[in-house]
Amino acid sequence: MAKIHESQLFEYVETVKKFSITWIAEDGRKIFIPVAECTSFHSSGKTMNVKCLTNGEIRKVNRLTIIEINGMEVFK
Fold this sequence. Notes:
By secondary structure, the protein is mostly beta strands. The protein is built from one helix and seven strands. It has one helix at residues 9-16, and strands spanning 3-5, 18-24, 30-42, 47-52, 58-62, 66-69, 72-75. A hairpin with a 5-residue loop joins strand 2 and strand 3 (30-42). It starts with a strand and ends with a strand.
């Protein structure tokens, strides 16, 4: 599996525009969105807002909890 460093996420989502993403929620569940786009990226707060393109829901995601993007493992 290919890998991407957490610090490269902003540049990556700006380049690809649409992506799949998996992260670990506060309660420990894995959350997977198959088709998403980034609506905002907050570097000081370590969060990004992700819009699920299948239902329009927007989720705030702590970037440190992201484990996979477009099939690539996210590492710290």
